[in-house]
Model the fold of this input.
Amino acid sequence: MSSKEPSFRESVDLMFNRAVALMDLPPGLEEKIRVCNATYTVRFGVRLRGQIQTFTGYRSVHSEHMEPVKGGIRYAMGVNQDEVEALAALMTYKCALVEAPFGGSKGGLRIDPRQYEEHELELITRRFAYELAKRDLIHPSQNVPAPDMGTGEREMAWIADQYRRMNTTDINANACVTGKPTHAGGIQGRVEATGRGVQYALKEYFRHPEDVAQAGLSGKLDGKRIVVQGLGNVGYHAAKFLREEDGALITGIIERDGALISDKGLDVEAVRSWISNHGGVKGYADAEYVAEGAKILEKECDILIPAAMEGVINLANAHRIAAPLIIEAANGPITAGADEILREKGTVIIPDMYANAGGVTVSYFEWVKNLSHIRFGRMGRRQEEARHQLIVDELARLDEHLGGAWSMTPDFKQKYLRGADELELVRSGLDDTMRVAYQSMAEVWRTRDDVSDLRTAAYLVAIGRVALSYRAKGL
Ligand code: NAD
Done:
């Protein structure tokens, strides 16, 4: 990245400042919302392979206008204070935009998880969780982490168990972290949630032809050429669903060791399994391999999905990005400088704070499930089925009365009779959240002359809600 490029946190602040300039907030309140409340740095030692290794971790709390605060824990070598503070700020705005009742937080551990055995990662994670939990930086009513880059269900299960060991009488202990496996207090559909949210966001965007036209595109998702960067949790699920369910063509996949391209479309499942068996995309047979992966961000396509990390579209390459529509599945993939270049070019950007909010949305459902101690659908499902059966029986009776001239298709009957299970309810809640949030953001984009992009619109909605919440507290 160029030295003129602001840091990730500065980028978030610049975007925030651009939006508040269009609002009428008292300067004191503006500053209160913008700044990060606190960042805790911890250095701890773990005895591994016969010697003590020291690790550095962070947990940053951006805003406590609502509690608990919420945000993932990332394991990566690039983790630093600036990054966790930027990510924590994004969490505040993201939660406000999708109406998840949380403040914003984020954590990170400077570690390359691929260098450690599972039992070593468990020791490290439990020790990190201990350090955070003893300061209430992991707590069901104060601070609830979730997975992010380099972490997943396994780490969340260790964190939950560590918290439980330290708080043996806390009946709500399971709600101290989300993204847990379903057998350890998790919820169906959390693993896929962020990628699923990206799919729902795109589906909603394509329901509005006037918005689609802003990107110079038309029609539906079917047949659209998509390039994805990062085939991890978010990128894999987004690409898989868009290909399998919406008929999109995945014409490029960019990973750490290079990229794969194919105009006829890549088989996402096959590429994913190749990566897990070979450690990278190189050598995959059914596509062209490009060693300089990042170049493929510039490939001609309809939709670009950066789903790996921040800052990948920056001052150095922004003017060469060909995609007319970018959906930010990762957090902060476009720097503030690149954002300006792309806006001038007319590229439509569906911003991170909205695009990847599926994760926190389903985390919210998991937290509610943990606090209510009951699976969604458990009370109502069979009653719903019984009522549907009543209607089906009654229609069958009427049909008989009319001499059998009309009948229901077996497929309809089967679908209609089945009550919703937890996964269907989670998907329904996520779909509704993504649609409603898009509409609130797009409404500002379409109606305000001084707002020319979705990011500014998203900030306006989110900051407006955080401001209302502070005002209600008398600030
Ligand atoms: P992950 O660790 O599961 O996947 C990241 C993927 O990107 C991996 O496949 C990795 O090999 C690849 N990658 C890393 N560096 C790369 C590079 N330089 N070029 C190309 N590929 C590279 O992480 P994730 O959970 O999918 O998170 C990805 C992004 O999405 C992050 O920005 C994260 O903050 C954001 N996000 C994640 C969630 C979630 O629920 N996991 C929620 C919201 C936002």
